[in-house]
Specification:
Structural class: mainly alpha
Oligomer: single chain
Strand order of the largest sheet: 1-2-3
CATH topology of the largest domain: hpI Integrase, Chain A
Order of helices and strands: HHHHHHHEEEHHHHHH
CATH architecture of the largest domain: Orthogonal Bundle
Number of strands: 3
Helix content: 55-70%
Number of helices: 13
Shape: elongated
Distance between the termini: 43 Å
Largest sheet: 3 strands, antiparallel
CATH superfamily of the largest domain: Intergrase catalytic core
CATH class of the largest domain: Mainly Alpha
Number of domains: 2
Radius of gyration: 22 Å
Length: about 290
């Protein structure tokens, strides 16, 4: 297949199957056509990871912003992943380079650490049920702490497993909620001695909204009890949520929408976290 034809096929996939916006598709098209112009080949089967490396070197020489390099790199990586999934290209996606941004990588928790942390609250007590539900919903949905403590009951659809999140700029997004998070909310609603009929999901013993500070302090306490020696905050759960999605094959654009990021450059930091973890895992297994 010709590369130009493959690009058209990929853009159709983004529109018809993934439902990406017109602006997103136009951005992908521009980046991919620029990439194609840099190549001295026309067939998809001849593409390799070095083509992307050479292209990024050319862009670096033009003194482009690092965020631009990352965006173009992710567009091409998405294209390669699509081609591999269609059986049109045999390439190791882990070999594809990602430009360094120079940003400090966020702290994340491993799956083992998440399990240890979430096992600390005592679900059969009112306080433990509240804390468990806060942890589960924050992590399961990748919420900002402000979105978590302001979550209303009418924003949760238990039957279909999603919540409507009101994020920054009062922009609404739909986020799936896992069965464990749903179970924790139902347990909390059964165990907790509610004082009023507040529309908010999470309340303290006085029937008022749970504060950000409360969740921050309880999270730090449970992390200490679980012997997690990392600097942890509610945003650590959001970081962990995003990184886990990418590790399990989620597309960057999907993660951007779930997190409510207005710019994809903000989401791209998690691709670096994922690659760093892959390298550490590789190094650990290769030690002799």
């Amino acid at each position: 297949m010709k590369i130009n034809d493959a690009i058209e096929s990929f853009l159709t996939f983004l529109s018809a199957e993934k439902g990406d916006s017109k602006n997103t598709i136009l951005a992908y098209e521009k980046d991919l056509l620029d990439f194609k112009k840099s190549l001295k080949k026309d067939e998809v089967k001849d593409l390799n990871s070095e083509d992307l490396s050479d292209y990024l070197c050319q862009l670096s020489d033009k003194k482009l912003k690092k965020a631009t390099l990352v965006r173009k790199s992710m567009a091409i990586r998405g294209f390669y992943k699509y081609l591999k999934g269609e059986g049109l290209l045999n390439v190791n996606l882990a070999d594809l380079p990602i430009p360094k941004t120079g940003r400090k990588l966020p702290t994340i928790l491993s799956e083992e650490e998440i399990n240890l942390l979430f096992s600390e609250p005592k679900n059969d007590t009112p306080k433990g049920a509240l804390d468990s539900a806060l942890l589960e919903v924050c992590y399961s949905c990748g919420l900002r702490v402000s979105e978590l403590v302001n979550l209303r009951k009418d924003q949760i659809n238990f039957k279909n497993g999603y919540i409507k999140v009101l994020g920054k700029g009062r922009k609404e997004r739909i986020v799936p909620i896992g069965q464990e998070a749903i179970a924790s909310i139902l347990n909390y609603q059964e165990v907790y001695p509610f004082k009023n009929k507040s529309p908010l999901v999470f309340q303290n013993r006085d029937g008022k909204k749970v504060s950000r500070q409360y969740f921050f302090l309880e999270l730090k306490k449970y992390a200490k009890l679980a012997h997690i020696n990392k600097r942890i905050s509610p945003h650590t759960l959001r970081h962990s949520f995003a990184t886990r999605l990418l590790e399990n094959g989620a597309q960057l654009r999907d993660v951007q929408e779930l997190l409510g990021h207005s710019q994809i450059e903000t989401t791209q930091i998690y691709t670096h976290v994922s690659r760093t973890l892959e390298q550490k895992d590789y190094d650990a297994h290769m030690k002799r």
